[in-house]
Amino acid sequence: MLKWLRANTLGTYLFTRRRGELVGEDEFGNKYYREKGARDWRSERRWVIFAGDGLEIDGSAVPPGWHGWLNHAREKAPSEEPLVVKRWEKEHQPNLSGSPFAYVPPGHERRGGQRQRATGDYEAWRP
Hints:
Layout: H1 2-6, H2 10-19, E1 20-25, E2 31-35, E3 46-49, H3 64-70
Antiparallel strand pairs: 1-2, 2-3
C-alpha cells in the first residue's frame, strides 16, 4: 500500500473512478481514459494508467497510436480506429536504455573494446 501511495496515484485513482471513462488497453496492459461529458474531442482530458505498480513510469512505454491519441493528434483511439501499420514499420518497444537489451555500439567496452580500424578516409582535426 505504501509503495502505491509513494507513486502519487491516489488522486489519479479517485479522479479516474469519478470522472474517467475507459477507452481501451494496449498490449503492455496500460489503460487509457477520457473525461466523461467533454464538449468535444479537442478539449477532453485524456490520460493513461500504466500497468504494474506505477513505479516504473516511462513515456516510451506508450505505443505510437495511443501517444497520438493522448496528445489530441487523433480524434479516435486505436481501440476505435486502429492505426494502419506499414510493412516497413517495426514493432514498438519501450526505451531499453539501462537494461541488458540496450544498444551497445561496436568498440564499446561491453563488446570487447575493439572496433574496426579507420579506412583511411578519416583525418584527425588539428587546430
